[in-house]
Write a structure and sequence with these properties.
The chain is built from twelve helices and ten strands. With 332 residues, the protein is α/β, with parallel strands linked by helices. The protein has three domains: 33 residues; 161 residues, Bordetella uptake gene, domain 1 (D-Maltodextrin-Binding Protein, domain 2); 115 residues, D-Maltodextrin-Binding Protein, domain 2 (3-Layer(aba) Sandwich), CATH 3.40.190.10. Helix 2 crosses helix 9.
Length: 332
């Protein structure tokens, strides 16, 4: 009987242990699940669909180490330039929605890729999960300091006197710079010789080399050259002047109601779990709150404008509605 009693006791202890273990696992399940992402040591890639050195690449590289600090795993920028962001964006949307591949997505450039049937993009709005907005960089145009153009009006008058002769650049078909040029031509009835480049670096090199006359880009593109005295900004495509170029008037103040910007969002492939989305978006939010990050963005003339996933999605949808009518200008 003593042996049976021992067996019963052993069975009771074993049963109790199993019950305790089951309860413990149930209680700890959410924490264990949260700890699964990211796996320490497994890198998270930020795809940038432009060449290294441009404003989007620089901003992403400023963000990456702070995200790495928050997430506890390597965060690295991967450049995939080509076809005006289409190459990199295609790779992004075809990636697993596991959180290890995210992307820098400039608006409206990404939107125009899938809205234009001629581009035959394999992705659409439904293929993106918004994580955050990082920077909203107003449009701006610059010339060499030895250029005869001192204002936007000077440029317009010269273009009207010499239709199709003045060479101006953008950094991607149907990107924000290209759309701004199309609107500018429509607004002023001036015509230019438009040259497309794959990156801001290429366009700036062409401008400095005298191969083009005017560079259409963004506020954050020109500060180094302005400080060095090699370029002069003619106008800002925003409602207000920017502190980065004191005294430079907006297009509106110069008589041309033209507004444009590159809104740099951070996205991932659609289909991710709410948990992964939350972890990544929170890491980005905390990174943008870092005083050193804000300081570096300011030094680069990148206007920080953080938005969470829902606000970024609403902004994206609003921009999509604004871009659609502009596609008709491209066709013309």
């Amino acid at each position: 009987m003593g042996g049976n009693r021992g067996a019963v006791c052993a069975t009771g202890i074993l049963t109790g242990a199993i019950v305790f273990l089951a309860v413990a696992l149930a209680v700890s399940a959410p924490a264990a699940s949260a700890a699964e992402f990211p796996v320490k040591g497994k890198p998270i890639n930020i795809i940038v669909g432009a060449a290294a050195g441009g404003p989007n690449d620089v901003a992403a590289r400023l963000l990456a180490p702070l995200m790495e600090k928050q997430l506890g795993t390597p965060v690295q920028v991967i450049n995939r330039p080509g076809a005006g962001w289409q190459v990199g964006t295609t790779e992004l949307t075809r990636s697993k929605p596991d959180g290890y591949t995210i992307g820098y997505a400039p608006i409206p450039s990404i939107i125009t890729l899938y809205l234009n049937p001629d581009r035959k993009a394999v992705f659409g709005r439904k293929d993106f999960q918004m994580l955050a907005m990082h920077v909203v960089d107003p449009g701006a145009i610059a010339v060499r300091t030895d250029s005869p153009y001192k204002s936007v009006k000077d440029l317009v008058e010269a273009a009207k006197a010499n239709p199709g002769k003045i060479k101006i650049s953008h950094t991607g078909i149907m990107g924000d710079d290209h759309l701004a040029i199309l609107q500018f031509e429509k607004l002023t009835s001036a015509s230019f010789a438009v040259v497309s480049f794959n990156s801001s670096i290429e366009a700036q090199t062409a401008l400095l080399g005298g191969h083009i006359d005017v560079d259409f880009d963004n506020v954050g593109t020109f500060p180094g050259h302005v400080k060095a005295g090699t370029m002069r900004v003619l106008g800002i495509m925003d409602k207000e002047e920017t502190r980065y170029y004191p005294g430079i008037k907006t297009f509106e103040a110069q008589g041309y109601k033209l507004y444009s910007s590159s809104a740099r969002s951070i996205v991932m492939p659609a289909g991710a779990s709410k948990e992964v989305i939350s972890i990544l978006s929170n890491a980005i939010k905390k990174a943008t709150e870092d005083p050193e990050h804000r300081k570096k963005l300011d030094e680069m003339a990148f206007p920080l404008r953080y938005m969470g996933p829902e606000e970024t999605a609403a902004f994206w949808d609003q921009m999509e509605a604004q871009v659609k009518p502009l596609l008709e200008l491209v066709k013309k």
